[in-house]
Write a structure and sequence with these properties.
With 619 residues, this protein is mainly α. It contains 26 helices and 5 strands. It has a 5-stranded mixed beta sheet, covered by helices on one side. The protein is globular and about 80 Å long.
């Protein structure tokens, strides 16, 4: 087993080059399949289909990667086969010498400039905190063991899915930036939708239309998504593509409509398998399709039969897997991503979602979600583009459909989900597309568009800062190390630990950035979500605590100053290693780096024999 992110990627810039080649090969493979099977019209025709090639190809391979990881059968073999396909596609790309496959009106320059900055930002080394926790942790687990983790003490890993299998595929080819490039490819898909919408309506001013969409795509939350490996923006773009195709695409032939419906079920299933919250938006998309595309009994029958087959083939195996490993029942799979009957997971659930009754802070949360209220919270907001919704006009039943389900889905997220701007991107794009298509406000309100253009300017400055201070880390290993020390929280702690801990040893690790460790790591999630006060509590948490005991961890690593108050400190023996000022809180925002103090690192011998009874308070 080869643990640790840096042991599973090439040196820079070779890792960067391989990441770009994987994306380029996916682009060309998608082109070839679309062209050979005459699917161009499904992707808005010959002028636009290439913007959707990456989306199409990656969605084709995701089920193979996911199910091989689910059942623990042949992940590396399947990755090798896909790699061969991508290699020959790259060869085909350079052989045909079609380097200039896109042409643009000069009016697209503002939007293209913004996209080019997003692209450069996505080339950065992985420094996002969530990414360094379970996203990379699960992907590296798949790479090493060939299957998804099932350890119940690793609480955060249950949130992983098909997106992490795609990450593992990138690591199979030693490519660090592939995951963030996949998220950037979601913007290519969105741009394809935007370009189609602009050019289908020849009345609107192309330049002002581009300014409008530049404001929309400069939503600050997109910075966070493009510069991480969180599997979201890619699948969000799938939802928006289907939405655009259903409401604004040209009429397809009967054969093409059937293929499109199969593609809808594939894309939505992959989204659901990647992230739980996509169940909501996938359901809404299917409602949209059934309301607007099913015209007779034949259409209905094909819709039902295709849905049943897609469910049995793509969704049901994961439901069975979650039941066998986490006792998540059939209905519970669609209601919550967490098991009801395993102690501690209810605490995890409450820590990340609204309880539906807590309306007191909703106004404050909503303001922060919609508009940047501070520099720190800038990339946590949808941005001032939402002001444009005051121009929204509802003209018919279809418009009302879109408005109603957008408001409904946003309300569900805010009341019962995570109150975070990134989970509102779908209704945000639904309404903005409806606004663009349905209103003639562009020419009359150019001054307002000019005023709101302050947001793209600020986002471009933020991206340029990110590129200069963080993306440069992909140029060589020396720059990467400097970037990681300053921007990747927990990097220096793990580097110190890696020098001391033998690779064969098992260690409980209390820092959330577990992906840098080159030894077998047991994440200490259970400390946060379980509370051992007496013997009965040990019995309630037995399945979790016993899993840890079975690994017989040799060490536990602490950092900072407050760990001695933790109950697990009772399970330590000798202080084996200590390092003063081993690290400091590293953040990606360069404006606030100097505000954090250094912390010390501690490696204690762990008393595996007395665990878990040692967690009990001492008399």
């Amino acid at each position: 087993m080869i643990f640790g992110l840096e042991q599973n990627i090439f040196s820079q810039p070779l890792s960067l080059i391989f990441s770009i080649l994987l994306l380029l090969g996916s682009f060309q493979a998608g082109n070839i399949i679309i062209e050979r099977f005459n699917l161009k019209d499904i992707f808005f025709g010959k002028k636009f289909y290439k913007f959707f090639s990456i989306l199409f190809f990656l969605n084709l391979i995701i089920p193979f990667l996911h199910f091989s990881s689910l059942f623990g059968i042949g992940f590396k073999i399947i990755s090798s086969i896909i790699g061969i396909v991508i290699f020959f596609s790259i060869f085909s790309f350079f052989l045909t010498k079609k380097f200039n496959q896109f042409s643009f009106n000069k009016s697209y320059l503002p939007l293209l400039f913004l996209l080019s900055l997003y692209f450069l930002a996505s080339l950065a080394p992985i420094t996002n905190a969530d990414s360094l926790d379970y996203h990379l942790g699960v992907a590296l687990h798949i790479l090493n063991y060939g299957f998804y983790p099932t350890q119940k003490f690793w609480f955060h890993s249950i949130q992983s899915g098909a997106g992490e299998a795609l990450l593992a595929f990138g690591f199979f080819f030693k490519s660090e930036q592939f995951g963030s490039l996949v998220q950037f490819s979601g913007l290519i898909t969105l741009f394809g939708c935007i370009k189609y919408l602009i050019e289908r309506d020849k009345i609107k001013n192309i330049f002002l239309s581009n300014i409008f969409f530049t404001i929309i795509l400069s939503s600050p939350i997109i910075i966070q998504l493009v510069t991480s490996v969180k599997p979201q923006l890619f699948f969000t773009s799938s939802i928006i593509f289907i939405f655009t195709r259903i409401f604004y695409g040209k009429i397809l032939s009967i054969r093409q409509e059937k293929i499109f419906l199969l593609l809808v079920f594939l894309l939505l299933s992959n989204a659901v398998l990647a992230k739980f919250y996509f169940i909501l938006f996938s359901s809404i998309i299917l409602i949209f399709y059934s309301f607007n595309k099913i015209k007779d009994r034949k259409n209905l029958a094909f819709f039902v039969y295709s849905g049943i087959i897609a469910f049995l083939v793509l969704i049901l195996p994961t439901i069975v897997w979650k039941y066998l490993n986490y006792q998540i029942g059939f209905l519970d799979f669609f209601l919550s991503p967490f098991p009801r009957d395993i102690n501690g997971y209810d605490a995890l659930y409450k820590s990340i979602v609204s309880d539906g009754n807590n309306l007191k802070n909703l106004n404050t949360s909503l303001i922060k979600i919609l508009f940047p209220t501070s520099i720190i919270g800038f990339t946590q907001s949808l941005g001032i583009g939402v002001f444009l919704l005051i121009f929204l006009r509802i003209k018919n039943k279809v418009d009302f459909q879109i408005l109603f389900f957008s408001i409904f889905s946003a309300s569900v997220i805010l009341l019962f989900g995570q109150q975070n701007a990134r989970f509102l991107l779908e209704p945000y794009f639904f309404l903005m597309i409806l606004l663009f298509v349905n209103s003639n406000f562009l020419n009359r309100n150019s001054i307002i568009l000019s005023a709101l253009s302050i947001q793209p300017l600020l986002v471009c400055l933020a991206l340029l800062s990110f590129i200069f201070f963080i993306s440069v880390g992909s140029l060589n290993d020396q720059l990467r190390k400097k970037v990681m020390i300053e921007s990747a929280d927990g990097y220096t702690l793990s580097q110190w630990s890696n020098k001391i801990i033998p690779k064969k040893d098992v260690v409980i690790y209390t820092h959330r950035s577990i992906s840098f460790n080159e030894f077998k790591t047991l994440p200490a999630d259970f400390l946060k979500y379980t509370d051992i006060k007496n013997k009965d509590e040990i019995d309630k948490n037995y399945s979790i605590l016993n899993e840890i005991k079975q690994y017989t961890p040799k060490y536990i690593i602490f950092y900072g100053n407050n760990f001695k108050n933790s109950k697990i400190f009772n399970c330590t023996l000798n202080l084996e290693f200590y390092e003063k000022n081993v690290g400091k809180k590293a953040i990606r925002n360069v404006l606030f780096r100097k505000n954090f103090k250094f912390y010390d690192g501690y490696i204690y011998k762990f008393d595996s024999k007395s665990f878990p009874n040692c967690l009990l308070p001492k008399n």
